[in-house]
## 1
Amino acid sequence: MLYLKNLVYHPAATPTAILKQINLELAPQQIGLVIGPSGSGKSTLLEMLAGLVEPTAGQIFWREQELTDVHLQQLSGLVFQFPERHFCGGSVLEELRLGHPELKAEQINRALQEVGLAHLPLHTSPESLSGGQQRRLALAVQLIRQPYLLLLDEPTAGLDWSMRRQLVNLLAKLKADWSLLVVTHDAGELLAIADRCWTLDHGKLQSIDPNLLRAKAEQPPDSSFSAGSIR
Ligand SMILES: Nc1ncnc2c1ncn2[C@@H]1O[C@H](COP(=O)(O)OP(=O)(O)OP(=O)(O)O)[C@@H](O)[C@H]1O
Ligand SMILES: [Mg+2]
């Protein structure tokens, strides 16, 4: 269970806090979805949970244990927005082994299997993969470290409809073994697989019933509400 208690991020340079008294609970084998417009603090929240940004106040717990940034770096696997822009390996194998030369072939195969890329020759260049395959590879890079918590920043951004569907199906499958926290400005297909939902607006997080969002998303397009544009 991930548990955030009154988490605040307020760098000295900004007039108001970027994250304001965030409270959040996410159980194992759940997908949590944070929906918020650009600049609302989504990526900052994930960076904090990945141990890359130190909270100004508040606490982060995993079960009963309060976590430091070092714990968080071990516990979490963060997939950045457009992860393919950060690939540095010349091949799929190199990409997976970056920083982990000790990894055995078996672990590498398992991670690729997990994301449906087991059929790829390991010498394939990451640049030559399709957009959806690149996202899968970026996920495998994190899964290979066996994190408890997968953090995904706009995982479906820039993918076409069919690749989005494939990725959403994959995330639903990964839920069997991991807790996932996904942030997005456009819930879209991700709504279908979310167990918990929150809106984030100017750093304020509010819980919202995913069933309510799903019902509203199914309303005709001329309805005044759209799940993709929650404010
Ligand atoms: N270290 C920092 N110092 C000052 N301001 C920051 C810092 N980090 C983030 N911000 C500001 O905090 C706000 C939230 O940024 P963040 O990148 O988390 O938003 P976001 O919801 O991920 O937006 P997008 O959807 O565009 O990716 C922005 O106004 C950003 O400029
Ligand atoms: Mg962002």
## 2
Amino acid sequence: MNTLYYGDNLDIMREFIGDETVDLIYLDPPFNSNRAYSQIFRDEKGNYPPSQIKAFDDTWRWGEESEIILDELRSPKYPPQLIQTLEGFKKILDNSDLMAYLTMMTIRLFEMKRVMKDTASIYLHCDPTASHYLKVVMDQVFGVKNFRSEIIWSLETVSGYKSQANKWIRCHDTILYYLKTDKFTFNKEYLPHKEEYIARFKKKDKDGRLYRDDRPGKRKQYLDETPGRMLGDVWNDIMSFQQASTLEERLGYPTQKPEALLERIIKASSNEGDLVLDPFCGSGTTATVAHKLNRLYTSMDLSEQYVEAARQRIAEAEGLPIEGESDWTEHAEDELRWLYSENKAPFKQLKASPMLLALFTSKLNDRLRRSVPYTPQEVLGQLRKMERFCKLNAQLSDRVNSI
Ligand SMILES: C[S@@+](CC[C@H](N)C(=O)[O-])C[C@H]1O[C@@H](n2cnc3c(N)ncnc32)[C@H](O)[C@@H]1O
């Protein structure tokens, strides 16, 4: 089932993504606090939504949320090496933004491992600001033996404001590739041969096939039998939007990744019909490419505006309805708010009990008499969304916040 979720990926994975259901994960978390903050969208009045400020603070600033995660990681549910790693980092990083970031990433990576099938792969896109710490975290979550490659996505050109810096200019990103176990999908990919290589095949047989037989002791080699240039772990053939700012797929979001990058990863590490998860989906590149390659997708983002951008982009690519997104008219929102205020069960209980949630949903559907009733998942998603945007009344909002 194709799904696009709005909300914190940790909550969503815990609530909606089953154990061992995903074939491939690509994640591109924001890894530089200044840049992450610049991704916060303003609302129509030009203000930053408080929910997003809070969400970004929780990610980037050391605070109560980080302490809560550290405490949680001390529980026996988690392998002890996770908390040991973070405690080690804390000795050197103290209560820094980077420490907050690594803490929030560790618990999410553990959740990602849970949802991965044994045959699944994970690609973590990052940059040198945090890649060396993240690799240690990945080693602890997935196991050193499941490390596969550190891929360098070379951005080649050094241009624009970057070239002003008085240092070796950073012109690559790092993608850490890990497996869950040693049973995995990998479809080798090749680049077209270079002209110099093709020129070595000087002879043509009666069918017009090019070949060479000039290598002593080696058999005749046909050009069409050589699959192409093997791809290594340095990728310099995929342009970033800095290099190719006029590419049609470019939507203008600062962190949008090119479809060719996702195409390479998805083709290599999944097969048609497989499920691809992107927990930090931004403008929806992964889901769009997954769909184009006949894979299924599950994507999520904390920013309402990014989810909307992704929804539109995916809808354009596929022309299909998207689960988890539904039309909530003002009337439907009002009824939901009223029903919630009359309801004895707080949000936490609705979330924890499928039976209560189903009952609540059926009451709402009775009131609304919609031809297509809301699903419990849509109702829960809408309640959470209304809470974030302070659309539940103050008293209710407190109840939700206190969970
Ligand atoms: C670097 S961008 C991803 C860009 C994406 N790869 C693309 O091609 O458009 C990171 C995204 O992560 C989202 N994000 C940050 N923290 C999150 C969280 N806890 N849960 C879900 N999404 C989150 C941000 O809203 C942002 O859109």
## 3
Amino acid sequence: MSGIYEIAIIGRATWQLHSLNNEGTVGNVTEPRSVRIIDPNTKKAVTTDGVSGEMLKHMHTEIMWILADKNNLCDACRVLNPEKFNFAIKTKKVTTKTAEDALKQALETCDICDTQGFLLERPTASRKSTIEFGWALGIPEIYRDIHTHARHALGERGRSRDQEGEEIEGITTQMVYHRPTRSGVYAVISVFQPWRIGLNEARQSKYTYDADDKDRERRYKLALKAYQIMFARPEGAMTTTRLPHVENFSGVVVYSTKPMPVPVISPLKNDYINEIKTIAKSIGNSIEFVEFSSIADFATKIGQLANNKPYKMEF
Ligand SMILES: [Zn+2]
């Protein structure tokens, strides 16, 4: 059983009729999130659909939170407060003067702070996340639709309510909302750095692991489990009535068992898997890759990595 240094998840996810990420709402029209990219296969500039890395990282964090033993979280993460360990310091639950000590206490305390990263105001410090996501980018073409959704107001009481089916008595006014949905295949990239779990990089003299092996392994497994679930159950905007039809996820998991950054080639490119394989083979025996062809296959294969341990660097 070898230690896992880094893992990259590179694939194409098929989501139908979703509305996971939007620009915002102006009046009664909600705009889908648009991004401008160069299509690598045609070399032409295109406007396509995007789901931001923030949104994907939030999905991953939330699943970790659901799965975590709340005793292994700081006060802020226990209630999914995005301030994370900064909250503990701000509210003086934890007193600390130096960045390295603040990070030490966070790494000793909290599964989410350690793996997902955070910023501290005073002392000023940052814990870089061990889990990174790029934008999920619609591989041209993405089908976009605007659906109208009627919301009726009860004139007498002045209250409005969703109308799902039956007519409500006493309706006098009506608002029409324009809600977008998109269907298509999305290019997804994510990198997880198990070797950095518990590693205090704010130390000036010498880097050390401030979480013990047991905590590091638990956090590693938790992060992998969150990956297993998030592609089977993406959460985001408008899922109340635009729960995505999740169809497929195919691609490649690349991981290294020695200190070696894994190659990340965009799955926007049609030949990304072959390119990754070629790079992995030319680098040698420290990089492995596993292809997956469905959501179930991905969940199985990423889950198998939980039999390994996070790599521990000697300093
Ligand atoms: Zn925390």
## 4
Amino acid sequence: MNAQRKADLSLSMNEMGRRFWAGEAEICHQFWGQARTNEEQARWLRLQVFKEMYGSGLTGNPGGLIKAFLEKLTDQVGKAKTKSDRDEFDRSLRVLREEYNHYKLFADVLENATNLPVLHSDLKDWQIAEDRQLQAIRQGIREREGQLGELAIMFTEGGGAAFFLVGRTIKGDPLSDQIAQASEIVYADELEHGEHGAFDLANELDTEEEWARARTLIIEICEQRLRMRYGMFGIPVDETRIKEITDGKIEPLPVE
Ligand SMILES: [Fe+2]
Ligand SMILES: [Fe+2]
């Protein structure tokens, strides 16, 4: 595949991603478009705390995302042979640090919202059905599609950070301010995580068939991400709108 064709496919994939990310932002505006009680905020915060620790299928490790990073790093200590091995180890250390920080930030916000301690043993009970389904879809793709599946999964990490892009703008009460502060930090980190996934995808896909397959997988994951967003806010899942977003009837989220 020549470089121009690859660049065109990559551009079109990223634009499709930005339409799904705009869909996620739209759902966030729907929820935060009015003042919310602490209990309404606590509902999505519980899922978010779970997601930062477990990653909803971003890795196949049953112990979750943080555990997956720790095990991968332990396994790779002392094995680097090349600059790229060293760079990858260094990046994993940084992303591990960032993801743990996201967990801590939202756990702190949740404790303030509910005045109850956030116990690690409660986390798994906080996953909602739509997120369990997202995890199952990613895991199925991982098992069926191998490396191409991993690339598609990582392209969808964080949903273009659209959730945090909107979250960082909310205000009006102390809890909202705290959510905005946490979202500001997570937004900057997740933007890079998503770009990294898009970069790896474009780097590794080499044939028309691979690009087409990855596109199908990414649509499947991103549609479920939208259901997960509706679910986390307690908004009924709008399948008609999801279909419209998939069909491109939405402006892509602008590039910052
Ligand atoms: Fe995160
Ligand atoms: Fe991330």
